[in-house]
Protein: Catalase-related peroxidase
Amino acid sequence: MTKPSVPNSEPLCVPCRLAAIAAVVAVLAGGFAYTAGWLTPARLTAPRFINTFEAVAGQPHPGYRRNHAKGLCVAGYFDSNGHGTALSRAAVFAAGRTPVTGRFAVPGGNPSAPDTGSPVRSMALLFELQNGEQWRTGMNSTPVFAVHTPEQFYQQLVAAKPDAATGKPNPATLKAFYDANPETRPFQAWVKAHPPSSSLANAAYYSINAFWFTDSAGDKRAVRWAMVPETPYEPITDAQKTEKNFLAADLDQRLQNGPLRWHLILTAAQPGDPIDDATMQWPDDRQHIDAGTLVIDRSTSQENGTCRDVNFDPTILPTGIRPSNDPLLAARSAAYALSYKRRTLEETLHPAIHQTQKNGGQS
Ligand code: HEM
Structure:
């Protein structure tokens, strides 16, 4: 039997080895620099987004979310009636109960902003499925978003930066942004026709972005969802318009009288409906499925509550739900992760942060 021949391998010379190591380090450093946006300062990265949220908020607010900073934690459960299984095999849609951690908030990077600063309210939820999976979602109280792409959202953020002299956004700059971006019109029209609700409890909250649902037979449908309140909608009152912090107090008072309920309404797209464009609604006659009831039965301040250290990244989804190609979704995931990283690092370095700022969102 002949021995297999071993190739005559000379060891690499020392300078050659050092050059190879240097080349690997250079490639890795280049990768980091590119990812951080240092090589392409005009590219829209998560740090650029988050730095701009911080700049627009004015002074720093360590330990708080860089957007939707003012909010409160809630908890409860979702009672599924089983009807959602027609669209998705996600375990959360099987009949039964799933515990939920949630957060209500208003947009903006200032945890002490007035509740009237924006017409939008938000609801974020984390469903803890019995099989160990999670479904996280962040919803706004408008069925459409103002813009289609992350780049436009960034430009909108820059246009809304408060003027140093007035402390308010410059109306001419904002108008120029809206004129240059006509896809913002459905959002503007919706907001004009729907005054903000008088309470967090009587608003509907929308996924806005579409997601792919897969049922147990493997069939895929694009779906948007909404949490529709049992509490009838009422518009903000004239008295509330002059108050800075009525939303949290109103919610606490309502919860003292009993739990609050929303219905999870799933809406399935038809072929041709826009899946990747959050500025466009689908026609009203699409199939709607009431998948069950969200029950919220307690609230706590966000400084002490379990929602504080949650990243409600909308791309954390159970089997049976997948993100669509809507470009906002990937940008949201990256921006929320960096906001989360910064705020939790600040909490770790300064553990007393939320004691000293406890009234940041509620006072
Ligand atoms: C490119 C687009 C967007 C960017 C860059 C962005 C950015 C952010 C950031 C940085 C946060 C704070 C996250 C954290 O610290 O946990 C946040 C929160 C939030 N955003 Fe967005 N957002 C975008 C689009 C949207 C859209 C389309 C919706 C509505 C469906 C939305 C709804 C929310 C909600 C509900 C929260 C609060 C979540 C919570 O209570 O923790 N965002 N956003």
Q: What stands out?
A: Residues 49, 53, 65-68, 71, 103, 105, 122, 124, 138-140, 145, 150, 153, 208-209, 278, 311-312, 328, 331-332, 335-336, 339-340, 343 surround protoporphyrin IX containing FE (CB under 6 Å).
